[in-house]
Amino acid sequence: MYVARWFVDLGYLGICLAAWPRLVCAVRPRWSSPWTPWKEHPASSAEELQKALTAVLTEANADEIVEAEAGDAEAQEQEHKLRELAAGIKKSWQSTSAHACYQQLGHVITNLTQRCEGLRPAADWLLDYHEPALPTKTCAESVIDIFAEGRALVETLLVSRHQVAALKVLDKKTLRRYQALSFLRSWLVDLTRTPNHAMMWTGFWDGDPHNRTTKAKLFEFAKETDHATVHPDSFLGQVINQAQDIDACYADAQTNKLASNMWAMASMSFVLGMREKAQGTVISLVNKELEGERSLSQSVLSAHEIPTVGLAAWGLGFWSPRVVLVDLMGTCDRTSPALQKQLFARLPSWAKSMKHWSPQAFAIRSRLRWQCLDCSGACSLDNALAEHVEKLVKAKATQDRKDQELREAMNPRREALAAAGLGSQDLNFAQELVKALRKRRDFDKAFRVMERTFALRRELLDRQRKVLAGVAAPRRPTGQRLVPQLLLEKADPSAPDWLGNTALTLAATKGFLGAVEALVQAGAEVEASNENGFTALICAALNGHLEVVEALLKAGAQLEARSKDGLTALIRAADSGHLKVVETLLKAGAQLEARDEHDCTALTWAAENGRQAVVEALLKVRAEVETRSKDGRTALMNAADNGHLEVVEALLKAGAEVETREEHGRTALIRAAFEGHVAVVEALLKVGAEVEIRDKGGATALMRAAMKGHLAVVEDLLKAGAKVDACDKKGKTAVFYAEVGGHQQIANILRKDLAAQ
Asked: Cβ neighbours of residue 161 under 8 Å, at least 6 residues apart?
């Protein structure tokens, strides 16, 4: 074997010498490197893994995408039995006659409960405003949750806070599981903390007769590479280790389920801890055969840990570690493909649950890379291997720093906030919750959320000010000049920060055309999107950067890519009033009638915000005037509601229907009267709007204007023939509405008019 290698290397040298002096051999010949007892397999690049995941997601059929689950009654009965079993173990585990498994499980349950109570955890605060109210979680219940439904709770990670804030989680079981998971995350992840730089995974068996791979060597290897093993460096690892890894519980079917649920939750907690630390490299040591006794395929590493890495990287998104698999059996050719398959195992159901995400878009949410080292025979867990692995770790850390520098060149302030973990998610979710509560007409809770929002905003702004102290604002020339050099130094143009923003999306947001062009030329992923689903094209369109939009379209950016709430680049540009961008997108073939999640189009958004020039441009290309949102609103109603007279006139000229009603039965006239937009009311009356038309409560435009105290509108409606003696469904007249609103002057005018009639 060594002779063959020697000849190959001589051949390499011969090629270099023959090309001299035209070619300089920049790479040192392999034969001059010191011989190593391990074999380093070619790494799987981020692009290769993304392609593989795309294929998995594309090929998955409905049965594969949605994991089969027992019927509700059967599942509830099974969970109930596991809860009873876990509760019974908690009471009896210290008995001298207790089964070994019960002693192990009881030890874990008791220790976790005690530690939880000292941490004062809480479930997601968004749940406080749901109806019916969920019972308050306790630590004792939370620990039982781990053993009774751990696997199901891990899958509940795919329920987004966006859904909870929008009050869209209608299934009580799902909402209860979300509560259980959020409570668990608030304390269990904390128990995975270690003093070391990173965490190391192992599919390990201390049974090597040649003494190459003992646990003592494993721990020393971890120490040399500045990693911690699960045991004994974290509190959670210590507790499980002291319970002998629950090894007495696998023979019985029921206790095996308890153990499996525990490992699912433990793995999730360790991986989430790694993700929160933005751990750059995940090292997995494998010392098991794929099949047979103590098989790798049945190990915790394969069944729980690696799949959860996939969930954290792609499902939660924007974590891009390098996975280094060290195979101590020398079987990388078998173990590496098998574990890579497990990396994707839980992702089809997750990707399917996300709105407006194609398999390709989902696959680029992470830049995870994979590499395998064969370490068998003369290779062992010694200093030489530790030094080599440490070089790989340091190389990834250097790469991460370069990627961060590239994003900083585009927006140093945004990158500083991202690195500090300071986003505005809580504020966004609070605002979404307020909207949902108002729609349900639960104004008391909406007001309480608003009060909480003010406190959240003050806290966030205070923390942001401290982080941004001394951080310069982005400067166009300086930032763009740095890009070519950083790309030359192999900075990854597609590497995302923890919110999913890449150098390209940041450059597009700021309108840095030169940087955008350089990043695209360097292979930046044009369709990469942040946590809100904003691609570079959507970011550029939203901010009106026409030249950047044109450059991205030239690079093949997808016109119909959508944000999480279904907004396209065209809708965003129309909403913001960027006429030239709208015209460019339309010319490129953007769908004129594309709808967001509320069924609003570019026209309805532009009308709502009074973007007259954009509305006229959209009408010119025959945008549908009578398009309705989910609550029945048209562009005319939106414009009337917000008092945009010029837009109202343009829509009326285009043939907008005046008497169209929304879900509450209100017309454009009633909405304009309610808001007190005199000029709009006059314009609608001029084209023959029906004065006596009524909403679902039987109220007319006159009643709504009287209640709000809009005197000029009341006078215009009276001139148009509005009836003062008309009654709503409860027999109340406009006079009553005026008095209820506290507008006595209007009440007197109405009485006078009634007397004159």
From this structure: 124, 126, 425, 429
19: Cα within 13 Å, side-chain hemisphere = 11
pLDDT tens for residues 436-463?
A: 888 888 889 989 989 888 888 888 888 8
Nearest Cα to 370, choosing from 406, 329, 320, 328? 320
For residues 339 and 325, the answer to whether their CB atoms sit within 8 Å is: yes
Pairwise CA distance, residues 190 & 195, whole Å: 12
**pTM attached to this predicted model:** 0.86
Give yes or no for a contact between 316 and 157, defined as CB atoms under 8 angstroms apart: yes
Distance CA 362, CA 366 (A): 8
CA–CA gap between residue 28 and residue 47 (Å, rounded): 27
Helix, strand or coil for residue 281? strand
DSSP character for 304? Answer: I
3-state secondary structure string, 455-516? HHHHHHHHHHHHHHCCCCCCCHHHHHHHHHHHHHCCCCCCCCCCCCCCHHHHHHHHCCHHHH
Q: DSSP letters along 121-182, please? A: ----GGGGG-SSPPPPP-HHHHHHHHHHHHHHHHHGGGS-HHHHHTT----HHHHHHHHHHH
The conformational region for residue 350 under phi > 0 = left, psi -120 to 50 = alpha, else beta, is: alpha
Strands 369-374 and 39-40: antiparallel
Tell me how many degrees the CA angle 717-722-727 measures, rounded to the nearest 5.
Answer: 125
Q: Using one digit for the tens of pLDDT, what is the confidence trace for 35-83?
A: 789 999 999 999 999 999 999 999 875 444 444 444 567 778 888 999 9
CA neighbor of 463 nearest in space, from 422, 424, 497, 429 = 422
Angle CA(586)–CA(592)–CA(596) in degrees, nearest 5? 125
How many Å apart are CA 696 and CA 665, to the nearest integer?
5
